[in-house]
Design goal:
InterPro entries: B3/B4_tRNA-bd (IPR005146), Phe-tRNA_synthase-like_B3/B4 (IPR020825). By secondary structure, the protein is of the alpha+beta class. The chain has one domain: Phenylalanyl-tRNA Synthetase, Chain B, domain 3 (3-Layer(bba) Sandwich). The chain is built from six helices and ten strands. The protein is globular.
Length: 221
């Protein structure tokens, strides 16, 4: 497993933060019909009970938005991924179909409100990760977004640099069809509430759709 630590800057800005990481051996595929049936069901439910205005009041999303403010970022300009995914669905758009691992992480994020980093573990440099705050001009290539200004964003760093923020993960460690080991990190800016359930949901979906034994869960703070 990984040694995941939280910097003093994050502890000061977000004292309630708790995290969970799921590490598992997996087999990725381009598309999974059963998974997309679950996504379609959630989409229907979301559209009957939420609006684009109400999303930001969902407790986990609200806590993540507040963490952005405390770290120095405007959450209306750089939205947490869980909020951005829900907004996309509520605008009548469909989710991007990427691959099974990415799609199932997106489903858990949608269901729980947690922003979740999904990484190809074999592309992470070293076994130590630290959650800190992004610095001015810190290099970071967001997946499908190009160079991303991560100043004031919470960011996980390996020994080479940033690999993930709640807005976007880095191209360098992104998952693909070749991925054989996944590290999924659930960010609990609202504390422990719902954290265990989100991590176990990832495990369950990996077992159902990614030929996994479920892997292990590691909690950190």
């Amino acid at each position: 497993m990984y040694n995941i630590t939280v910097s003093e800057d994050i502890k000061k800005a977000c004292p309630t933060f708790k995290g969970a990481a799921v590490f598992a051996e997996v087999t990725n595929t381009a598309y999974c019909e059963g998974l997309w049936q679950e996504i379609a069901e959630f989409t229907r439910e979301l559209r009957t009970r939420e609006t684009t205005d109400s999303i930001k009041y969902q407790p986990v999303i609200a806590a993540t938005r507040e963490a952005y403010r405390c770290c120095g970022k405007d959450p209306s300009r750089y939205r947490p991924s869980a909020e951005a995914l829900r907004r996309r669905l509520l605008r009548g758009m469909e989710l991007y179909r990427i691959d099974t691992l990415v799609d199932l992480i997106n489903l858990v994020s949608l269901r729980t409100g947690h922003s979740i980093g999904g990484f190809d573990a074999d592309k992470i440099e070293g076994t130590a990760l630290e959650l800190g705050i992004g610095r001015a001009d810190e290099p970071f290539e967001g997946i499908g977004r190009g160079v991303l200004n991560i100043e004031g964003l919470p960011v996980y760093r390996d020994r080479t640099g940033g690999i993930g923020t709640p807005t976007s993960d880095n191209e360098r460690t992104k998952m693909g069809l070749e991925t054989r080991h996944i590290l999924a990190i659930v960010n609990g800016y609202n504390g422990q509430e719902g954290l265990k359930e989100a991590a176990e949901m990832i495990q369950d979906l990996l077992i159902k759709y990614a030929s996994s034994a479920g892997g292990t869960i590691q909690y950190f703070e």
